[in-house]
Amino acid sequence: MQKIRYELDPHNRLIAKGSGIRGIRKVLEGNFRISGHNDLVYHLKEPIPWHTKAPHQVKLKGSWSLNSEHQLRFILDKWQRHTFGDQLTLQGEIVGVEKNSLLFAVASRTAQDKSCIYILELVGIWQVDTHNRITFKVNRGKEQFDTLTFQGIWQIDKNYQIVYKYVKQDLLRKRKIIHTLVFHGYWDIQDRTRISYVISKNTGSVFDFKTSLGIFREKYIRYELGIGLSRKSSSAKKIITFFGRWRITKAGGLVFELERQGHKIQDINFGAEIRLNSQGKLLFNLRNRLHKEIGIELELSQDTFRGVGQRFLRLIKTRQETAIMLGKGFRW
Q1: What string of DSSP letters covers 280-319?
Q2: Kind and range of the H or E run holding 184
């Protein structure tokens, strides 16, 4: 049996080349698939002609990464580099981000030379690194992960959803194409120097952003953070401002309603220790869901609250205690 060396053509098809001076070079009709713990496999639609036992698939061992062009790259283990080279770069584009997966469209061609596209789905968790850059942790089993790092700067859209955009050059049409990825989640604040964007709480797909000290006011919450940039020592500064209003719920909780043009987007929930100061204003010592102080004190006028809030204020004034606990699980 001949030794075979594999290559990848511009259409994401494997090319097999037999050993020897007259080694046959053949494009293998097939496509890539993801199996097991995000292993990469090439399924063949026809056998390799010089094999006594034709394989149905070529299994690859290695690790995943993302290059600067937002192409999936598979870096091969040393023992496979003798037949493949150092790495395989799949030509295509990221077409979707789910709560625990990344979808990548692979462009290829059929035996009849017709264009075709198929989807690879990598499973894992979404997080951010120490530089507040978006990363996707590809699950390789046994608590091991390959990290895909998105080098660009993410944005926040009008509905407070996180959006990531990247530009690719269409060489055929000689134009630039903007690809937009939207991460659907909700905001949470558990610390004065950290805010979180929760995509899937149960599986750990959470963006925990490191920030400066938060600023809490009557009509907004504001944080500043830095985002690391590829090949640059400095960070891009980003200011996140949530506009809305404070409200006391019937269950005795304190929430900040994110709003846009009068339309409610979501609630950010807090607990608090509340007291009246000498000027008759309310001082809230904010707490997280674990009842721990987050190091933020918020001052609000009594006019901020209506309805349930007014009934709560009357209760405060009739109590003999200097402070009252507010929030789920607290008494008031």
Answers
A1: S-EEEEEE-TTS-EEEEEEEE-GGG--THHHHHHHHHHH-
A2: none
Q: Which of 26, 8, 123, 29 shows the shortest CA–CA distance to 74?
A: 8
**How much is the average pLDDT of 312-328?**
64
Q: Tell me the pLDDT of the chain averaged across its residues.
A: 84
Q: In the prediction, which pLDDT does 53 show?
A: 56
pLDDT for the residue numbered 78:
76
Give the global pTM.
Answer: 0.86
The candidate with the shortest Cα–Cα distance to 46, out of 30, 61, 33, 34, is: 30
For residue 241, the cross-strand partners are 222
Residues forming a β-bridge with 114:
none
Q: Which single residue is written with the structure tokens 């608090």?
A: 272
Q: Would strands 92-98 and 87-89 be described as parallel, antiparallel, or unpaired? A: unpaired
**62-89 exposure pattern, b = at least 16 Cβ within 10 A, e = fewer:** bbbbbeeebbbbbebeeebeebbeeebe
Give residue 180's pLDDT band: very low, low, confident or very high (50, 70, 90). very high
Q: Give the mean model confidence (pLDDT) for residues 136-150.
A: 95
- Give 264's strand partners: 259
Give the contacts of 28 (CB within 8 A, at least 6 positions apart). 13, 14, 15, 16, 42, 44, 46, 48
